[in-house]
Design a protein that fits this description.
Blueprint lengths: L8 E2 L11 E6 L2 E6 L13 E2 L2 E2 L8 H13 L4 H8 L10 E5 L1 H8 L14 H15 L4 E2 H8 L3 H9 L3 E5 H6 L3 E7 L16 H12 L2 H12 L3 E3 H4 L6 H9 L3 E7 L20 H16 L3 E7 L5 H14 L3 E5 L7 H11 L3 E4 L5 H13 L4 E4 L11 E7 L16 H12 L2 E6 L4 H8 L4 E5 L10 E6 H8 L7 H12 L3 E5 L8 E4 L16 E3 L4 E3 L6 E3 L12 E4 L3 H11 L5 E4 L7 H12 L5 E4 L12 E7 L12 H13 L10 E6 L5 H7 L3 H15 L6 E9 L2 H18 L5 E13 L2 E10 L2 H17 L7 E5 L6
Parallel strand pairs: 1-4, 12-17, 12-18, 13-15, 13-16, 14-15, 16-17, 19-29, 20-27, 20-28, 26-27, 28-29
Antiparallel strand pairs: 2-3, 2-5, 6-7, 6-8, 9-10, 9-11, 21-25, 22-23, 23-24, 30-32, 30-33, 31-32
The protein binds zinc ion (2 copies).
Length: 823
Amino acid sequence: MPLDTAFSYRVPDGMEPAVGGRVLVPFRQQRMSGIVVDLHDRQPAVQTKNVVGVLDPAPVLDAQLMRLGKWISDYYLAPLGEVFRTMLPLSAEFKRTITYRITEHGQLALHLGGMSGSSARARRTPEDQLTEFRVLDYLANRVSGREQSLRSATRVSRAVLAGMVRKKWIVREDVSDAQDAARIVKIAVLVGANPPEEASTGDAPTPAEDVGRSASKKLNANQQILVETLAATGGRLAVETLQTLDVPRSTLSTLVKRGLIAIVEEPAEFHVSRVKARPSPFDFEFNAAQKQALQRIVEAVTARKFAGMLLHGVTGSGKTAVYLAGMRAVLEAGRSAILLVPEIGLTPAVAADLHQVFGEEVAILHSALSNQERAEQWHRIKRGDARMVVGTRSAVFAPVADLALIIVDEEQDSSYKQEETPRYHARDVAVMRAKMANAVVVLGSATPSLESYYNATKNKYALVELPDRVEQRPLPEVELIDMKQEFQETGQEQVISRKLAEEIRERLGRKEQVMILLNRRGYSPVALCRACGSRMECRNCAVAMTHHKKSSRMVCHYCGFEAPVPKKCGECGSEYVYFLGTGSEKLEELLHGMFPTARIGRLDRDTVRGKEDFERVLGALDAGELDLLVGTQMIAKGHDVHGVTLVGVVGADIALGLPDFRAAERTFQLLTQVAGRAGRGQTPGKVVLQTYFPDHYAVQYAANHDFAGFYEKELRFRSWMHYPPYSALANVLIRSDKLDEALEWSGTLGKWFEKTRHEGVRVLGPAAAPIVRLKRDYRYHFVLKSPSREKLNTVLRAMLTYAVGQKIPRTQVIVDVDALFLM
Ligand SMILES: [Zn+2]
Ligand SMILES: [Zn+2]
């Protein structure tokens, strides 16, 4: 719930909540869990309600993380409760995967007509029999079926399923039980288990009374059994044990929903002996620059004072080895370290490497973990079993003790920015956390963000450089192809220039490998009517639908909406619908046509569903099973394939046309990163960069591997335009699915900004957002800039207060401090 304030509750006698621990409290007819931020004796001005139950006897957020949470709430203007929820991966609901499998018995019943009533006791209606048949038929075609899908496909009731299990036609399997029960137990806590207070005089019933009342009035027989069992065992019992009672599982969840029972997760007693793997000796063969970088990290860590470092290393310079060696030094000193990696960087192979280096001391947190797995890792870290933490964005909140080092790999990567409330940037949170912990923060990158590089030049961070590739490998030569000239010379629009085609042919002939980047997925990005000129747009967004040929669909890449491929124009009915432009799917097809014998793979969000797919394709490339790999920016990110000697870039400058002040920076970074994939083995690499903007400085500097040159030019531009890092910037987005509302609200706020005139803060807008309609919402925005972050946040806070007063819902005014995208 988006609330900006903390609330006071009375702690009944006998209850001992802890600051940083969770409690259950009454809130607007419901019971909600909250984090205790303070315990005090001051008499509050308003009448308080009682805390209903204590969920954690000890803090789940220590003092440092509490402080960090408050800082985030303040800096990003995010409700503190939402911040805490983001920081804690302990979801209170319990989720498990129940699956069903058909047995041989069931197969027989299905095929030999065992369907007719064989048991005299169970008198089944013909309807039940039909349902049973549907269930068996459904399961017969599968290894197993999830309960949820099974039930929605066959509309079978739990009772009929239970009957079928008893007849041994099907087997019920509890997946989460099998895997995780040993590590985490879920405890059901009877809320209001404290002794009921006698006859209260006030209007508001005490919680205990409340429970008692609803218990006597509304509990059905099954619910009564659960509540009584819990009460009889002191109010706490493992969920697993409760489930052995002869009560449907839904009863427990109903009671949880009604707030009578809460589920908490606790580490199980360790009965599984876990042999500690010895950290395998990992040979880091360091060059001089790497040795120096490592030494500086270790010295800073030993000093036990805050220090920030920007590790700027060219692609292939061996940054990862430095990270791991730094972390190992921390581990040997008995302290903790966190390594943050971008979303795409955490593949199973990387995880395997980490296990090899750190053994059981490492916890790996990534987005593919289930809630249960995440909670399990969280508890391992909290207990101190894992002191090395590697993970994506939210791993910055890992509850390690004695934090010595935080490393942010590819610190410029946009996946560190959370694009929902709280809209924090994990890199900046990492810096703040290191400050609070007197720890060292290392930001690593081949293409540092302007902000970080600027901070380094202002001596906020020490600049540590790895200027050379390992083993003195040269950076690839880059050749620019002017596609406007190519068009003039060939008389037609080309996707692959003559030069690039020739270079590819040459590499294929030598059995070397090629990567081609086209940062746009799908077959064709635009469907256009030649008769009336209208383009096919998404129903929910003001963006063109992309044609996907293989799936034969039109897809919106912003909201996922799909539609059939149009045969006629939706506007005028003309049959002249043309598909324009090239996406990665079409590029792959083109290359197949040009090089029929080449083995071609493709890497984009259509071919990669999970991290395994990503790794499988890269693995195939590494093993020499592919000659050519086509892909979106996915192929540009930090992996190391030695056989690639040519990188072709096709339309990587699309972004230069976008109305976003970071477009040049992003293009420079993408081009540098993808060029860095070439020549990482023995043979030197080459890059052929096709562009319509050959003179653009982002393209020019990337081609010359000149980071410093780009940085200087871009900084000058940012300074003129008062953009970050010279100003703090916030994007304020007003959205509504009703156009009138969106316009009215942005008008109201626009007038307020005008009237209040805050000195030192520039307000641009209201203006239609570049994507004026997205996921059915109409969007208008303001961009606020100020050299003083304090002033900026003061204005934003006042604006939010005003918006609440004007009855503009808090969820429809999005404040994005340090916004990465203004689209
Ligand atoms: Zn038309
Ligand atoms: Zn859409």
